[in-house]
Write a structure and sequence with these properties.
single chain; 236 residues; alpha/beta; 17% strand
């Protein structure tokens, strides 16, 4: 998968060169290209922002550098172009899995008070938010999106079960996990996980996921119950 990032802070993306995503790039499973928007500014001082029309606090990223950058990075308009924005659709598991099917993504990171609206009209396919809060720029949201999407690229993770049995994969939060030692600081691993009965283990894990989701994310719990009625409910 090819992921391109337009930003005025390219050095922030060095973190993608380590860990699982770093190994994925070394193996050629993932190709991340980060481009500095300032390189395409025609301003003699390489400015990328100016005061907003109509007044107001802060600065707005100007259209010329952004448009030139996006056009240079995606000349044939093959990429899915995404602007990381607080007003965008909230990033969720369905969106992650949908984007993972794309061959190429181009992520635009805004800064200051945002970007000129004409860039969104001309160059952006979709706006995505990582939550109902505001950050200083789109770089961290872009990293979150890259991390989440990359996990669904074939070969990036060691096992397909890593994505099929985690939180949100089935609409529920994940069940508790345990490893060695069997007892730690007076706390023991639940007996059901030690018996080797896979049906009992699966039932226990589902029950745990349901209860954790009910307590922490009642919205997800209610949606799951609606979509997974009990057998006697179907007969009504």
């Amino acid at each position: 998968m090819k992921i391109k990032v337009a930003t005025i802070f390219p050095e922030m993306f060095d973190v993608l060169d380590v860990g699982i995503l770093g190994k994925a790039q070394q193996k050629g499973l993932l190709d991340v290209e980060v481009v500095n928007i300032r390189d395409y500014s025609t301003d003699k001082h390489k400015k990328t922002d100016d005061a907003p029309f109509g007044g107001g606090a802060g600065m707005v990223m100007t259209p010329q550098p952004l448009h030139a950058t996006i056009c240079a990075m995606d000349k044939e308009r093959k990429a899915k172009r995404i602007y990381l924005s607080p007003r965008g659709k909230t990033l969720d598991q369905q969106t992650v899995e949908r984007l993972a099917k794309e061959q190429e993504l181009l992520l635009v990171c805004g800064s200051y008070e945002g970007i000129d609206e004409r860039i969104i009209a001309l160059d952006i396919d979709e706006e995505i938010s990582v939550g109902d809060y505001v950050l200083t720029g789109g770089e961290l949201p872009a990293m979150i999106l890259i991390n989440a999407v990359s996990r669904y690229v074939d070969g990036v993770l060691g096992s397909s079960e890593s994505t099929s049995e985690e939180s949100f994969s089935n609409g529920l939060l994940e069940y508790p996990q345990y490893t060695r030692p069997q007892e730690f600081e007076g706390l023991s691993v639940p007996e059901v996980l030690l018996g080797g009965n896979h049906k009992q283990i699966d039932d226990w894990r589902l029950a745990q996921s349901l209860e954790i989701t009910r307590q922490r994310r009642p919205d997800l719990y209610e949606k799951y119950v609606e979509n997974h009625p009990k057998p006697h409910d179907k007969e009504k």
